[in-house]
Amino acid sequence: MNDADSIPGAPRARLVVVISGRGRNLAALIAAIREGRIAADLVAVISNRADAPGLAIAAAAGVPTTVIPHVDFPDRAAFDAALASCLRACRPDIVALAGFMRILTEGFVREFEGRMLNVHPSLLPRHKGLNTHAAVLRAGDAEHGATVHFVSPQLDGGPAVIQGRFIVPAHDDVQQLAERVMDTVERKIYPQAVAWMARGELQLEQGVAVFRGRPLREPLTLDDLEEGFR
Among this protein's residues, is 120 annotated catalytic? Predict the structure, then answer.
């Protein structure tokens, strides 16, 4: 239990999760909130795809959902304007992108910068963008993992908060590697980062990730996870 959970009437962060797909990180966040490990209220889940399985996960948890199909808009800027309007109505303290497969415009990012996190399935700055697991195998990387970072206008280029890494098994294919990253890294480090942010222990200050009052010169690691997130 953290301080915000133990003080009656303590304010809780308002969290919005934005998804495009299966919602596995969303499920991890919902579980952490239910178990009292994240001092936040999940006020909405937004998707750009009406067929995203993660919407059913949100609905089963009693979380309001909104679908904003990107195909209904003439360009990226128009879609981002609609998404921004929806987010403003939710008044989020934290926006967690969880498998959201859209590149965001600079104007959108600037509006929510400092409140917006993303989890990316690679050890950034290596392998930005899509198909990271195939890129790891193609490059013969010895290590792989995932990174939680603040979102900046540069694709997968915002300040890193925490990374989890492991040795790439000799016989993993792309699908096995993807499942390993999700199960052993992403579903641990993302709820932990959101928990830190909800408590006010993690901020973005002048383009630098600051953790418990100190600038992060390098990302935190799995060793920094609190007991409830290991």
Answer: yes
In the set 120, 133, 144, 149, the catalytic residue is: 120
CATH of segment(s) 3-229: 3.40.50.170
Domain ranges in the chain are: 3-229
Residue 8 has pLDDT above 70, yes or no: no
Tens digit of pLDDT for each residue in 60-110?
999 999 999 999 999 999 999 999 999 999 999 999 999 999 999 999 999
| 18 and 116 Cβ atoms separated by less than 8 Å | no
pLDDT of residue 11: 83
